[in-house]
Amino acid sequence: EVQLVESGGGLVQAGGSLRLSCAASGLAFDDYAIGWFRQAPGKEREGVVCISISDGSTYYADSVKGRFTISKDSAKNTVYLQMNSLKPEDTAVYYCAGPCWTGYEYEYWGQGTQVTVSS
User: Rounded mean pLDDT of 41-58?
Assistant: First the structure.
């Protein structure tokens, strides 16, 4: 059974930072691509970041480029999302999901973690 378990969300003031974690199990981690999408009330789902575990290549949406950094720890089957310079418009539920290669549909996602950025 594939499981993606997020942690690390919370409430932060604008300009602050948060780090999300995604622990993966039940899949071939080193052959996978894991990322994050976010869903805010009344807005469409937005794919935010993606990392291909095998070669470390990454994708960032323009809305987060330069502020968010995705990384991986293959020894722990875990992906991290470091979010800096947070803005109120980053407020959303963040879901760890995969695969996230271009042209692929997400097959698995976690329960989501709330990120709230106050102004």
Answer: 94
Please give the C-alpha separations between residue 19 and each of 38, 72, 79, 80, in angstroms, as whole numbers: 15, 13, 10, 7
- What is the per-residue DSSP string for 80-105? EEEE-S--GGG-EEEEEEE--STTPP
3-state DSSP call for residue 77? Answer: coil
Return d(Cα 69, Cα 66) in angstroms, integer. Answer: 8
The pLDDT tens digits of the residues spanning 53-112 come to 999 999 999 999 999 999 999 999 999 999 999 999 999 999 999 999 888 889 999 999
φ and ψ of 59, to 5 deg? -130, 140
- State the Cα–Cα distance between residues 11 and 24, nearest whole angstrom: 24
